[in-house]
Design brief:
Distance between the termini: 49 Å
Largest sheet: none
Strand content: under 5%
Structural class: mainly alpha
Radius of gyration: 31 Å
Helix content: over 70%
């Protein structure tokens, strides 16, 4: 891999930016910026940890409300899904020609 002028210029600009950032962060204003960033990062971390703690409750509530809404708007949905699951699982007696799932032949073959 050869080093050309673009690579060298990119390296020099990156190094210059690093030196400038280091010099800026050594000033009082830079230290204040770092403290603000640390405070915001800690607040964000605490908020994320709180969200993780609340997630099980949220999803349980979502599941309950979703089930209630589904039952209210589609009263036969529960029995429909049970029957459908039993047909796929194969536990509901014998399959008829209407419910038997067989693959169709590939017309290209």
């Amino acid at each position: 891999m050869s080093i050309n002028a673009k690579h060298l210029a990119t390296f020099i600009l990156g190094a210059a930016a690093g030196v400038a950032a280091h010099k800026y962060l050594q000033t009082e204003e830079g230290e204040k910026l770092l403290e603000d960033l640390k405070t915001k990062a800690n607040n964000l971390k605490a908020e994320a940890e709180g969200a993780i703690d609340k997630a099980p409750e949220y999803f349980e509530e979502l599941k309950t409300k979703g089930a209630e809404t589904l039952k209210g708007n589609f009263p036969d949905a529960e029995s429909f899904f049970k029957d459908l699951f039993e047909k796929f699982k194969g536990t509901k007696g014998t399959a008829t020609a209407e419910t038997d799932i067989t693959p169709t032949p590939d017309p290209i073959s």
